[in-house]
Each structure stands twice: as C-alpha cells, then as structure tokens.
Amino acid sequence: MTATPAPAPAPTAAAAERPDGVGDFEDDTDPEDASDRSEAMREGMAPRQARRIRMVAAGVLMAAMGVILVVRLATRSSVLVVGVYGIALILCGVVIELSRNGRTRLGSWLLVVGLAAAFGMDWFVLP
After folding, report:
1. SS3 for 18?
2. Within a domain: residue 21?
C-alpha cells in the first residue's frame, strides 16, 4: 500500500485577514502598483512649495502695493491713501510671516480678503 499525501488545508478566513499577509492568497504588493498609489496620493503641491509660492506672491503684491502707493500719492496726496496702502503693505508682510510659519491657507485667505478690502476702500472712500 502506498500512502497518499494528505491534501493541504484550505486557507481559513482568519489567515486571509491577517495583517501580515500570511495565507495562500496572491500578494498585492507589486512595486509598480505601489508607485502608482504614491503618485496618486501626491497630486497636490508639497507644503514647502506651497509656502514658497505664497511668500513670493505676497512679495510681488507688496511691491505692487508700493508702486500703486507712489502713483496714488503723486496724483492725490492724502493721509487716507497712505493709510489704506500702508495697511495693505503691512498685510502683505504679515502673510509672508504666516507662510514662513506654515499657516499658508490662513495667509492666502487673509491676503485675498485684505487686498480686496484695500481696493474697495480705494474705489469707494478715497477721492
């Protein structure tokens, strides 16, 4: 009589659900799939890139506010002009500092709302 080998036990549900992946099922850790997943997760900018972009944007807008201030003072010298555009310049500096400290979303909202308010004041209040 020849002995026949016993069939291998079927994998149980517990073996299929183990976190270390032990079981007779296919391993789904293909290196190409892993790189595709990591690229899909990084669709946006890195935080450092976002901070730098917002710092540069605030710096450019600060320079533009300075030019507009000089032009407005040449046409109409007023304390209100200095006040409105001075506050806009300070706001741009605050946004740069916020971006350096990692508060880029707050800085972006503050920049947009503050500059819109400065241009609104220029349009409605200044002579």
Report:
1. coil
2. no
Six-digit token pair at 33?
Answer: 């799939």
**Which uninterrupted H or E stretch holds 70?**
helix 47-75
pLDDT in tens, the chain (127 residues): 566 666 666 655 555 554 555 554 444 555 555 555 555 556 788 888 888 888 899 999 999 999 988 998 888 878 888 888 889 999 999 988 988 888 888 888 998 999 899 889 888 887 6
By three-state DSSP, how is residue 111 classified? helix
29 lies in a domain?
A: no
CA–CA dist 101, 115 (Å, integer): 21
Instruction: Flag whether 56 is in a domain.
Output: yes
SS3 label, residue 117: helix
Tell me the residue range of the domain where 59 lies: 47-70+77-124
